[in-house]
Amino acid sequence: MNVNVSQEIIDKASVLVEALPYIQRFNGKIIVVKYGGSAMADPELKASIIEDIVLLKLVGMKPVIVHGGGKEITKWMKKTGTETEFYNGLRITDKDTLDVAEMVLAKVNKELVSMAELLGVKAIGISGKDGNLLTVKKVMPDGKDIGYVGEVTDVDPSIIEKILDDDMLPVIYPIGKDENGIGYNINGDHAASAVAKALKASKLAFLTDTDGVYLDPDDRSTLISELYVSEARELIENGNVNGGMIPKIRNCINAIENGVDRVHILDGRILHCLLLEIFTNKGIGTAIINDDAEKFYKEQA
Q1: Which residues contact 153 (CB under 8 A, 6 or more apart)?
Q2: Cβ atoms of residues 284 and 277 within 8 Å
Q3: From the CB of residue 284, how many other CB atoms can be counted at a distance below 10 Å?
Q4: Residue among 52, 63, 13, 38 nearest 196 (CA)
Q5: CA–CA gap between residue 163 and residue 254 (Å, rounded)
Q6: Is this model's pTM higher than 0.85 or not?
Q7: C-alpha closest to that of 100 among 183, 178, 17, 31
Q8: Which residue(s) pair with 208 in the sheet?
């Protein structure tokens, strides 16, 4: 019997064995992935993310992509000589800006669909307008009119459920419309959270430009692998998290309290970040869960 097997091959087998309980746990479950940030700008990272999502589908999960495209929109705005302005983190969006945003997001959407299909899965690209998927109302932060920026008031998940039932991958971009049919740009995180809640997803993963949530933001060794909702609130109240991480964690909490089982904050700049978080015992980011949920990373079990 030939026992001359390299350690590299044995290690690969060990990785597959480690992934098995997670594949079993989430087989047939819906996983919503909010895709944006730097991971969209780098071709290698973009390919890595789509490979991860395709693999999730091929091992029996039901991934749903909700993507942004803010950096690409800003690039195209510069090409047209238009200045980009933000208020409270939201892009001020006049009619011309909305037209550019919708054009760019549709372009990005088709690119992602094509990449997924080249890897052997059927994918369908849609906007929040299609099938009345995302109904919105105009956002007025602090009473300020920032144009065609909407927040989701209703989600009709039937179109997504139909795509999933037909064994295809939904790829959604965050343009919705109000009750009068007027189009609005939607913050991608808010759109992904609304979609995940409507689908009662098992997981919602935010791909960001940060490693996750830290107990001490200045100490990289304090990354928290799993965090109860009550603990997440305490971190906000105590000032352990601040800036752009606050609305992201609030989105996570809101999703958990509306039926999503686990929400992950991941660094999308790490190759195959989704696989590392979902299929390994330690994970690489932060998972936020309900207070009565089971923490199942082995180091904390």
Answers
A1: 135, 136, 137
A2: yes
A3: 20
A4: 63
A5: 25
A6: yes
A7: 183
A8: 267
Cα–Cα distance for residue pair 132/179, rounded to 1 Å? 10
Q: Which residue has the tokens 């799993």?
A: 226
Rounded to a whole number of angstroms, the distance between the first and last alpha carbons of the chain is 39
pLDDT at residue 299 in the model: 45
Strand-strand pairing, 149-155 and 183-186: parallel
Q: What are phi and psi for residue 195, nearest 5 degrees?
A: -65, -45
Enter the tokens of residue 167: 């064994």
Count CA atoms closer than 13 A to 107's CA, side-chain side.
12
Q: How far apart are CA 223 and CA 217, in angstroms?
A: 9
- One-character DSSP codes across 201-239: -SEEEEEESS---BSSTT-GGGB-SEEEHHHHHHHHHTT
pLDDT digits (tens, 9 = 90+) for 18-70: 778 788 888 899 999 999 877 888 888 899 999 999 999 999 999 999 998 88
